[in-house]
Specification:
Elements: E1 7-12, E2 17-18, E3 24-25, E4 30-35, E5 44-48, E6 63-64, E7 80-84, E8 89-97, E9 100-109, E10 113-115, E11 120-122, E12 128-132, H1 143-152, E13 157-160, E14 164-166, E15 175-181, H2 194-206, E16 211-216, E17 220-222, H3 226-230, H4 245-262, H5 278-296, H6 306-318, E18 334-335, E19 346-347, H7 349-355, H8 363-408, H9 438-442, H10 448-451, E20 457-461, E21 483-491, H11 502-518, E22 521-524, H12 532-545, E23 550-553, H13 560-570, E24 574-578, H14 585-594, E25 598-599, E26 608-610, E27 618-621, H15 630-633, H16 639-647, E28 652-656, E29 678-679, E30 690-691, H17 698-713, E31 718-723, E32 728-734, E33 741-747, E34 765-768, E35 770-782, E36 801-809, E37 817-826, E38 829-836, E39 843-850, H18 853-866, H19 891-895, H20 900-907, H21 911-916, H22 935-948, H23 954-961, H24 964-974, H25 978-994, H26 1002-1023, H27 1027-1030, H28 1034-1046, E40 1047-1048, E41 1067-1069, E42 1076-1078, E43 1082-1083, E44 1086-1087, H29 1099-1111, H30 1116-1127, H31 1152-1166, E45 1177-1179, E46 1196-1198, H32 1199-1212, E47 1214-1217, E48 1235-1240, ...
Parallel strand pairs: 1-4, 1-26, 2-9, 3-9, 12-13, 12-28, 13-16, 16-22, 22-23, 23-24, 24-27, 25-31, 27-28, 29-30
Antiparallel strand pairs: 4-7, 5-6, 5-8, 8-9, 10-11, 14-15, 17-21, 18-19, 20-21, 31-32, 32-33, 33-39, 34-38, 35-36, 35-39, 37-38, 40-43, 41-42, 44-59, 45-46, 47-48, 48-49, 50-55, 51-52, 53-54, 56-57, 57-58
């Protein structure tokens, strides 16, 4: 992937529907879809409506994305499909699993805005927008002079309210004709056309560097729209929406009530035209309840005509009609009349006939039945009456609420007496006919030619679901009077698709095309109640004409998830956010932080990273044209500081014309008819209709807008908001490349300083860094001027306020600052202490701050050295002439000199390993110690902190507080000498500069250094591994690091010395004796418990893990040395269980020798010239079973002789007592347990051994509890012939037979004494013997009468393989455990494929867990899946972890289970094989997830049942990682 390309990864998860999650991307980004763990290996198809290159976007046309598999291998865990995002808009993706749709979501790609003659980019965060009410611009030829005010004050975007012909109400948003320019813009000699407006917009873009957007209003049209009269079907009228008839009747009745009250006809009933108190209100309620509701009887619209229904029912009964009803759960209900006529509703007679059945056909029985039916209908009608009554109650409450707000409330419009112009409540419906009585008017609702003109007005409903259309059937908003109604606009009825209302869709499409042709963007008016599918269609139309359409909207959903639905589906670029919602300065500051930017000192994020959910980009407005006037709400002094605070937000910002001029009232979109003032630099203060920098805060606005645009353009994208005191807010914008900051300190005036107390004492402020200049300072001041008078012709502001502005001055010249002192907080950390003198309410001061020069230089040098890791650091970097010589070397060349054993030191080493070397892991105060002393310990923590920018984490606190961790990292490596020390020295040289940067930046740069170093080291490690790893998936690569994690060299060698005559053995000088000593890597069994000292090296663990961790990864020489070192300790024909450097070895396991032999076999197969190992010299530590330990070189013999000795010993029989038997070597073992026996059964060829007091296989838990009386008793002795050992023995015998046939191995068999003379048993004979007896004795037949079955009464599961044969407790043989799968992998020839497959299916069903295999059948009575080694109680089966192998899910057997499935599925057939591959990938994906999330970066030893975390398990275990690597290798 080319560096510099930003790539985001979206991981798909089964059934994950993300339509309420917002994913924002930029043009030029690449989006990769990858499979999450739930989908790995499954047939997933990704679809998107993002158009293919050269095609046009069609929302309903989806295409399939093709998968790329970078490794080209069967392990396709890295596969992805991608989109190169080049077109802005909203796009949908979904994915299916097979034929089932499984999940999906949206992506929103931001537009690129361009201005100027050179078409340069205007970043979204630089937008400074100003709203103009179009009707206040006057005739078109005067617009430029009026718009010039915006240009001169630094705005770069103008938002015009609609420019179309307005309706009768003169509201800016009630449009009479969507296609016609407002004729008022024309002057007597020149008609204003769309192309005139387009030319002006073009000029503003190219010459003034300003963009223009305007509103689109889709939801309603003016009641007097001419086209609506021609096309009444475009509204919700009583013909197409008959459900509104009852609401219309109520609306007319309320209008008639208005007329009566206005005419004084209700005074006698206590309601005069001027409603002034609660008494009037209560009388009004009484009139409605007693006079209106009883008269209009709304419930009748929902009721059944009882007599008519009973008559119909009686007729049917008399005719002997029977019900054809099928569903007995259907009860009689009212079926609403679709035409909503009074008593027009009905009931389903079919259900009635089935419910009321006469007991005979006689007239009396029929009459009785009809009476029951009548009673039921009357009950249903009563229910409808009650329901209507609820609606009527709500209607009265809403009406009363409206009257209170409009006429009584202090904050309301106080409309005065009720008149026909200002009615009691706004009418909900149009009524274009002569007024008649209520009864006469009602007759019209059933006459289509009249009823089609009764149309519902639009409005909004408090707290309603914005995705529900309140005018559609099912909503009772109009009947319940819940609509806050706009009586000048008719709500438009689009239906679901263009065919439902062709004229309306075509008309609005034309309207959209005009808008998109002439304007750079749109504001979606009333967005939350515009039907979303309509807005979607119209915006698609607009984007066809203007691809980079800027779309803004205001949403009043009050719910971020719901906002996201609109943003996603419509591709909204910026959501309007209002500073006026802030009730104090603290909240205003919080909004600045909420709407954009990252925290100061944030981490550098990689270019390739997961796609994170975002919040919608904000257009943050200090005031919108809907807001009430802040001068009335706050004070005139607050205009400047609040504008400053808003403008410091890292997003688009905006204001409304009039705010800067300090207009002291809301400029009403309905009633304002005056014009805006024009720009005239030389205008006098008193000249009407003209403004300049003397007016209001215009001069300050220019400085503020300039600064906002500079901060956005220069990447000041980090934000810190500091609430200095209750009125003072300091906002810092910081640039992460140059580390310059701009700090704006604003003293707000939410309370009027004339009437409220503001302290003269302003707290001192500390500003870190060096103040370069005061960018500007400004104070709102009063001046002598005649008091404010509202001008008749022009919109004017307060004349008696202005501002003092001083720009680009030094601190000493400031009038606001008393003095500035410099304190040094630490080395290279300047802090300037500012004491204010005149930071009066309504003042702002803005500082430009840079780092102290030494710190600035250190940052530049650091960035220069970081460029080798990422081009991101180029900006702000400085050449470095003085740096340490080691920094002149690229880090990659230092890393290339490290061996994999060195990498173990640099990257890993847990606490126990470090302690052995005299160190330890770093402990983070108030948190926890790191998992590793090496870099992985730090990287694991930072991987969690970095994406979230969690700078408050104790880890970051520790870095900011001192250099301890920094020094620990470099000094630990320097003390190691060799190549590791070079890494330490390079880091130390880098850290010299790191320590010179301000403390708040240290976490960010420490992380950047370590990320670069760490990724380089990983690459260096992989470079030394096999091609399987180098060309493998990310999963394979990360697993292969388990090899680096587990294989290391400590201060003391774990392995016994190899033969001095062996070539290529690594040596070092012993630090203490100064003598040469061998230093071979040893393999830890697991971290942290089996990592150091005597408990690090185990025979069995080493050789189960060796193939995966060392052979598959290409570490052949180290693997050879381990094999030979263990070979040297062979004694009694066995390999030690616990190695103890050989001198303290315990020979108490029967299986390690067979795993060792299996590894030699694998070595010979995998390694080039692998057979050479057979001739390598082995230094025998115990030349005879009873020898004392001999030094290396005393007696050497080739490996093949040692192998033969092991085979010979077994055939002769092994029988000895462990040395030093007793509590000194095992405090739990009983005396009999120290007796070790093993041998080969001459009849079957099976290896056998053990007794009921010891455990010689991997399931080696010895009881430890006195309370539960299990001490000294093995939980799983597995004596007799354990199934995996028989398989391993068969594998070894078959291999030796093959080698001897090729004359590579000089022995044909083993000798035994029989009847006093020696006989040879050939490997051929032994091999055939095992083959002949295995299935006969191990398979549990599905046939209950199988003659081979010795103990049919013990059979628990059929179609499986026994866990052992010949155990001292016969029932143990029959337990279902995962061990037979091991035999299947090493000796598949022992199994009939069909039987093997069935047994594997049983294992899958019963034993397979999320990460591991249950060690015992859950149906077994001693099964317990939770391992707790600390629990000591009376329960024999679980005390002190007795159930270690009786249920908990161990990871390493899963590798053998999966490999067995893979092998046998191939033999069963291609279809089964394909399914198996999917299943394996799916299982392994869970290991991938665990590996990625684990702070140990490993796979655990075991989990509790169903994959639950087990605190007693090793966090990362060698064989767990090894077997997963082997599975992927086989795949």
């Amino acid at each position: 992937m080319p560096s510099g390309k930003e790539t985001r990864l979206l991981h798909l998860s089964e059934m994950e529907k993300l339509d309420k999650t917002l994913f924002r991307l930029e043009q030029g980004f690449e989006l990769q879809f990858r499979l999450g763990p739930t989908l790995q290996g499954k047939p997933v198809t990704v679809y998107t409506n993002y158009p293919a290159s050269g095609e046009v976007f069609d929302r309903h046309k989806f295409r399939t994305l093709s998968w790329h598999n970078p490794t080209g291998k069967e392990d396709d865990s890295d596969k992805y499909c991608k989109l190169d995002l080049q077109i802005s808009g909203s796009y949908q993706y979904y994915f299916s699993l097979g034929n089932e749709k499984s999940g999906g979501g949206y992506i929103v790609v931001d537009p690129i805005l361009r201005v100027g003659a050179d078409n340069h980019v205007l970043p979204l965060d630089c937008v400074t927008l100003q709203t103009f009410l179009a009707k206040c611009l006057g005739p078109f030829h005067e617009w430029e002079d009026r718009l010039k005010v915006a240009k001169e004050t630094g705005y770069n975007m103008i938002h015009f309210t609609p420019l179309q012909k307005l309706g009768l109400s003169r509201s800016c948003y009630s449009l009479a004709d969507q296609l016609e320019v407002n004729p008022e813009f024309s002057s007597h000699n020149k008609k204003c056309t769309w192309s005139d407006i387009g030319a002006l917009v073009e000029k503003l873009q190219s010459q003034w560097n300003m963009l223009c957007i305007t509103d689109v209003v889709y939801n309603h049209t003016a009641t007097n729209s001419e086209w609506l009269r021609m096309h009444p079907e475009c509204g919700y009228n009583l013909v197409n929406s008959p459900h509104l008839k009852p609401a219309w009747v109520l609306d007319r009745a309320l209008w008639h009530l208005t007329c009566m009250v206005a005419d004084g006809k209700c005074v006698a009933k206590g309601v005069p035209p001027s409603i002034e108190n609660d008494h009037h209100l209560n009388c009004l309620r009484k009139i409605i309840w007693e006079d209106i509701y009883p008269k209009i009887k709304l419930w009748e619209f929902f009721q059944v005509d009882v007599n008519k229904a009973v008559q119909q029912f009686r007729t049917l009964l008399t005719q002997g009609k029977m019900s054809t009803k099928s569903d007995p759960n259907q009860h009689l209900q009212i079926v609403q009349d679709p035409e909503y006529r009074r008593f027009g509703s009905t009931v389903d007679m079919n259900i009635a006939l089935a419910t009321f059945i006469p007991h005979s056909n006689g007239p009396a029985a029929i009459e009785e039945c009809c009476n029951w039916f009548r009673k039921r209908i009357e009950e249903l009608n009563a229910e409808q009456y009650r329901q209507t009554n609820h609606h009527q109650e709500q209607a009265v409450n809403c009406l009363a609420g409206t009257v209170v707000y409009e006429r009584l409330a202090g904050h309301g419009p106080k409309l005065g007496p009720i008149t026909r112009k200002y009615p009691l409540v706004t009418r909900y419906f149009t009524y274009p006919f002569k007024e008649l009585t209520v009864e006469e008017e009602e007759t019209m609702i059933h006459q289509p030619d009249k009823a089609c003109y009764f149309m519902a007005h639009n409005g909004w409903v408090m707290g309603d679901d914005p995705l529900r259309n309140f005018a559609e059937p099912g909503s009772n908003v109009y009947l319940r009077r819940e609509l806050i109604c706009w009586g000048d606009s008719v709500k438009l009825r689009y239906g679901n698709k263009p065919e439902d209302c062709p004229y309306l869709w075509a008309h609005m499409k034309k309207y959209t095309e005009i808008t998109a042709k002439y304007f750079h963007g749109v504001r979606l008016d009333n967005c939350h109640s515009t039907p979303i599918h309509v807005a979607e269609y119209m915006l698609d139309t607009a984007r066809k004409l203007r691809a980079d359409l800027y779309v803004v909207a205001e949403l009043f959903t009050g719910n971020e998830e719901l906002d996201n639905v609109f943003v996603n589906r419509l591709g909204i670029t910026s959501l309007i956010r209002e500073a006026m919602t802030a009730y104090n300065s603290h909240e205003e500051g919080r909004l600045v932080y909420r709407f954009g930017g990252e925290p100061v000192g944030s981490f550098v994020q990689p270019r390739l990273r997961p796609l994170m959910p975002a919040i919608a980009h904000a257009l943050f407005m200090d005031i919108t044209h809907d807001n009430e006037c802040p001068i009335q709400h706050r004070s005139a002094y607050d205009a400047l500081p609040s504008a400053m605070i808003v403008s410091m937000a890292c997003c688009a910002t905006g204001s409304t014309k009039g705010y800067d001029e300090l207009v002291p009232h809301q400029i009403s979109v309905v009633s304002e008819e005056r014009f805006y003032a024009k720009w005239n630099p030389s205008a006098h203060l008193t000249s009407a209709g003209e403004v300049n920098f003397q007016t209001g805060i215009l001069a300050g606005r220019l400085a503020i807008n300039r600064l906002h645009q500079e901060l956005g353009a220069k990447g000041f994208n980090q934000v810190y908001v500091d609430q200095v005191d209750e009125d003072i807010v300091a906002v810092t914008r910081h640039c992460p490349n140059t580390h310059q900051s701009v700090v704006a300190v604003s003293r707000t005036a939410f309370r009027d300083p004339k009437t409220s107390f503001y302290s003269k004492e302003v707290p001192e402020m500390c500003i870190p860094g060096k103040i370069e200049e005061v960018v500007f300072e400004a104070r709102t001041v009063e001046r002598s001027a005649s008091p404010y008078m509202k001008d008749k012709r022009f919109i004017n502001g307060l004349p008696n306020f202005t501002m003092e502005l001083r720009e680009h001055i030094q601190i000493k010249d400031s009038k606001i600052i008393k003095q500035a002192g410099t304190a040094i907080k630490g080395p290279n950390e300047f802090v300037q202490e500012i004491e204010f003198e005149k930071l009066t309410p309504g003042s702002v001061i803005v500082f430009r701050v840079s780092l102290d020069p030494k710190a600035q230089e250190a940052v530049g040098v650091l960035r220069n050295h970081l460029v080798q890791f990422s081009p991101h650091f180029k900006s702000g970097s400085l050449p470095d002439d003085q740096s340490a010589p080691i920094l002149k070397t690229l880090f990659s060349s230092i890393a290339s000199k490290l061996t994999l054993a060195d990498l173990n030191q640099v990257l890993y080493r847990c606490e126990a390993e470090e302690q052995e070397d005299g160190g330890g892991c770093y402990n983070i105060p108030n948190w926890s110690p790191l998992k590793y002393a090496g870099l992985q310990g730090l990287m694991s923590v930072m991987a969690d902190i970095r994406p979230k920018n969690d700078l408050g984490h104790p880890f970051c606190d520790n870095l900011r507080s001192g250099d301890w961790l920094i020094d620990y990292v470099s000094n630990r490596l320097i003390s190691r000498a060799g190549a590791c020390a070079e890494v330490g020295k390079w880091l130390k040289a880098m850290f010299v500069y790191l320590k010179r940067v301000p403390r708040y930046l240290i976490p960010c740069y420490f992380d950047a250094i370590l990320v670069g170093v760490y990724t380089t080291l990983l690459d260096a490690g992989w470079h030394q591994m096999s091609s399987f790893v180098q060309n493998g998936s990310t999963f394979v690569k990360h697993l292969s690091l388990g090899s680096v994690q587990m294989c290391g060299i400590g201060r003391y060698s774990c392995l016994p010395a190899l033969s001095p005559s062996l070539h290529d053995v690594p040596y070092r000088l012993n630090e203490i004796t100064n003598e040469k000593e061998q230093c071979c890597v040893s393999l830890a069994a697991g971290l942290p418990h089996f990592s150091s000292g005597i408990f690090r090296s185990w025979g069995r663990d080493t050789f189960i893990a060796l193939r995966g961790l060392m052979l598959v990864t290409g570490r052949y020489l180290e693997a050879r040395n381990i094999i030979l070192a263990f070979a040297g300790t062979l004694r009694h024909g066995l390999i030690p269980n616990l190695l103890g450097q050989g001198t303290h070895a315990r020979y108490n396991c029967r299986d390690a020798v067979w795993w060792w032999l299996q590894c030699i076999q694998e070595y010979c197969k995998i390694v080039p010239n692998g057979l050479d190992i057979l001739r390598c010299p082995v230094s025998r530590m115990y030349p005879r079973d009873d020898s004392s330990p001999q030094p290396a070189g005393t007696m050497d013999q080739p490996l093949y002789e040692v192998i033969q000795e092991a085979m010979q010993h077994h055939m002769e029989g092994i029988n000895f007592r462990e040395r030093n038997a007793g509590p000194q070597i095992d405090q739990n073992m009983r005396d009999e347990g120290f007796n070790v026996t093993a041998g080969i059964d001459p009849e079957t060829g099976f290896v056998f051994g053990g007794n009921r007091f010891n455990c010689g296989t991997w399931m080696d838990k010895m009881g430890e509890s006195d309370r539960a009386r299990n001490r000294g008793i093995p939980a799983t002795p597995r004596d007799g012939s354990a199934v995996e050992m028989v398989g391993l023995c068969k594998s070894a015998v078959r291999w030796l037979l093959d080698l001897s046939g090729k004359n590579v191995f000089p022995f044909r068999g083993v000798t035994v004494k029989r009847h006093g003379r020696e006989e040879i048993i050939t490997y051929d004979e032994w091999n055939r013997n095992i083959q002949a007896h295995f299935e006969r004795l191990f398979y549990v037949s599905e046939n209950p009468a199988d003659p081979n079955e010795k103990h049919p009464h013990l059979v628990h599961k059929r179609g499986i393989y026994k866990d052992s044969y010949g155990a001292s407790s016969p029932w143990c043989d029959y337990q279902l455990r995962p061990n037979f799968t091991i035999a299947m992998v090493v000796a598949p020839e022992l199994f009939t494929p069909e039987r093997a497959w069935k047994a594997l299916q049983v294992a899958e069903e019963k034993l397979l867990g999320p990460l591991g295999m249950k060690t015992l059948d859950p149906d077994d009575m001693v099964y317990c899946g939770v391992y707790d080694n600390a629990l000591d109680n009376d329960n024999y089966n679980i005390a002190r972890g007795f159930n270690y192998h009786q249920g908990p899910e161990w990871l390493w057997p899963i590798g053998y289970f999966l490999r067995a499935k893979l092998y046998f599925s191939k033999l069963i057939g291609p279809e089964v094989y394909a399914k198996t591959v999917v299943m394996i990938k799916n299982v392994l994906s869970r290991h991938y997830v665990h590996l990625e999330r684990s702070s140990w970066k490993g796979l655990p030893e075991l989990t509790n049942e169903n994959g639950q975390y087990c605190p007693f398990s090793c966090e990362t275990q060698a064989w767990s990682i090894g077997v997963v690597l082997e599975t992927l290798y086989d795949l």
